[in-house]
Amino acid sequence: MKKNTNATWLRNLVTFCLILSVFSTYTMVASAKPDNKPLMGELVISGSNTNGDSPSATINGEPAESGRTFFSSGTVATSENSSATIKLGKLGFINLTPNSNLSLSFSENKISGTLSAGQIKVFNSEGVEVNIKTADSLISNEAQQKGIFTVGVQTGATKAFAETGAVFMNNGNTVVPLQTAQDDDDDDNNSSVAPLLIFAGIVSAAVIYVLVNDDEGDGFVSPVR
């Protein structure tokens, strides 16, 4: 009778251990599902070979090729003859001009970065919060709006402007102005006026030439004289 009791107790213990093992395995598999994978971006490098060198950029100080995977909390730096784009999937993407240095972190619906040199252009999707720090400013967006804005650092000063959406500096104390087409319009106006001035000059020269030749022609007396 005692042996049967021991055998029953042993079977119950083994059964409990098996159930515990199955439960632990299921929990590990569930926690490793694709939705919990870290977000990743992609670095695309472009540029001109003016100095005979290929366009180049680095990630965390190491040379990187176009198409390399970019993880959050990384730093991208471009050379003097290269620009780069960091594609962030549904969050949007960021363009870097030559000689730029950007430390970037991102998570679900949020992009955070520190720009220490150069210039970037941010394209954020609707519902994505963006915060870009510089040495003297903090640029943030209206997360509920799809936006495009530029942030640049030159000689220690921060400049920013928005193309679409609402963008602010220093915790909303300053509204970043929208980029306007006024300069482009002025250029267009100047370019349209220039041909008219040239044409008028040609016509005037032609009129003067005709009058002079007519005055010197045989048998013709100018009405002015």
Task: Walk me through the structure.
The chain is α+β, with helices and mostly antiparallel strands and 225 residues long. The protein folds into three domains: 34 residues; 137 residues, Jelly Rolls (Sandwich), CATH 2.60.120; 40 residues, no CATH class. The chain contains two helices and 15 strands. It has a 15-stranded mixed beta sheet that branches. Strand 14 and strand 15 form a beta hairpin. It starts with a helix and ends in a 9-residue tail after the last helix. The C terminus is likely disordered.
Q: Structural class, from helix and strand content? A: alpha+beta
**In angstroms, what is the radius of gyration?**
34 Å
Which segments are poorly predicted (pLDDT under 50) over 5 or more consecutive residues? 181-225
Task: Please give the alpha-carbon distance between the first and last residues.
Answer: 149 Å
Share of helix, binned: 25-40%
Biggest pleated-sheet summary: 15 strands, mixed
Concise overview:
The protein has 225 residues and is an alpha+beta fold. It is built from 2 helices and 15 strands.
Q: Which terms summarize this structure?
A:
single chain, 225 residues, alpha+beta, Jelly Rolls, 3 domains, 15-stranded mixed sheet, 15 strands, 29% helix, 38% strand, elongated, disordered C terminus
Topology (elements, then pairings):
Blueprint: H1 2-31, E1 40-47, E2 57-59, E3 62-64, E4 68-71, E5 74-78, E6 82-87, E7 92-96, E8 101-107, E9 110-124, E10 129-133, E11 138-141, E12 147-154, E13 157-164, E14 167-169, E15 174-175, H2 182-216
Parallel strand pairs: 9-10
Antiparallel strand pairs: 1-4, 1-6, 2-3, 2-5, 5-8, 6-7, 7-9, 8-9, 9-12, 10-11, 11-14, 12-13, 14-15
